[in-house]
Structure formats: C-alpha cells, structure tokens
Amino acid sequence: MPYDLFLALVVFAFVMACTPGPNNIMLTASGVNFGFTRSIPHMLGVMLGFLVLVAACAGGLGLVFTTWPALQIALKVAGAAYMLWLAWKVANAGAAKDGGGEAAGQPLTFLQAAAFQWVNPKGVVTALSGIALFMRPDHALTDFTIMMAVYTLATLVSVTVWTGFGVALRRLLQNPRHARIFNVAMALLLVASIVPMVT
Q1: Total domains in the fold of the chain
Q2: How far lies 41's CA from each of 7, 27, 72, 85, 157, in Å?
Q3: Which residues, at least 6 apart from 130, have a Cβ–Cβ distance to it below 8 Å?
Q4: Rounded-to-integer distance, Cα 111 and Cα 59, Å
Q5: Buried-most residue among 15, 38, 70, 147 (CB within 10 A)?
Q6: pTM to 2 decimals?
Q7: Is residue 33 part of a domain?
Q8: pLDDT tens digits for 182-193?
Q9: What pLDDT sits at residue 146?
Q10: Structure-model confidence comparison of residues 187 and 47, the more confident one
Q11: In angstroms, what CA-CA distances link 149 with 58, 84, 92, 154?
Q12: Domain-located, residue 142
C-alpha cells in the first residue's frame, strides 16, 4: 500500500473510531455506571464485532444489500429497535456507588456488543467506506490485511479512551440526580444517532 494511501487510511480509521457515535456513547455510559473492568467484555465485543463486520463487507456484504434492498430495510428496522432498547437500558442505569461500586443493572455483554456492530450505522458506513476507499482490486489481500491492522488499533484506542472517560466521570456522577441526568442525556444521544439510519 502506498504511503499516502496508508496515511489516509490511518486518519480515516482514527477519525471514524474516536469521534462520538453509538459505540462511544454506550462505552462512556458503561464506564460511568459499571467501571472499566466490568466494561471489558463490552469493549472486546465492539472490537471483534466490528472487525468481523469489516471482513464480511470485504467478502461482499455490500453486494448482498444492493441485490436485496429489503434485507437492508429489515436490518435498519431491527437496528433501530435494538438501539431504542439499548437507550432505555442506558437511561435506567443507576448511579455509581461511593467507594468505586457499580450501578444497578448489568453492562452490555460481549455478544450483545458484537451483535450491535451489525446494526450500528456508523460502523457499517465505516466498514463499507473503508473497503471502497482503501482496498485496491489488484492488491486486495494486502490492503485488507493492512486495513484490519489499522482498524484494530484505532478501535482499541477508541474503546479504551471512551470507557476511560466514563470512568473519569464516575466521581462527578455518584449523586443519583446527576447520574440520572447523565444517563438520560446519553440515552437521548443514542436515540439521536438512529436518525441517519432511518432517513
């Protein structure tokens, strides 16, 4: 892969991974409500689920959606419903407890976080755009391998930073009223992120 194309891939991957989106909103909320350690399965699910999604897109998933538009509509409906459920879950999480205890409820599991990548509009756009922009047909295997390495690093940095940001906010949000405001705000942001998917 030429250096200029590689540099463009790195910038694209880090911008897409580290800017606010559904995953980062939920990871921040998880860091606040459940701490870093209990959020690790969620973090790993985001990473692995996204990488599997990228591999599927490289293998022709985009062509499947083009061939059967009804499948894309079904995925959008299922994705919107799932994101609304996740928003409800975030909005109803309790306050972080004094002394580093966790809020009531359960963090997202590895499988839930991995499955979410398939209905996350930002993730799907990132995967499909990356394939279209950075995989040259005559160097597909090499470019795909490099892309997966870059996406892995960018996603690792993103999930660590956003979960860590949530953990850093825990002290400010031990007051149940403050925690409630934060959780509802995160839920509303998550709901707002559905709009590009359904329009």
Answers
A1: 1
A2: 30, 11, 28, 19, 15
A3: 9, 12, 13, 54, 57, 147, 151
A4: 22
A5: 147
A6: 0.78
A7: no
A8: 878 878 877 777
A9: 94
A10: 47
A11: 14, 32, 36, 9
A12: yes
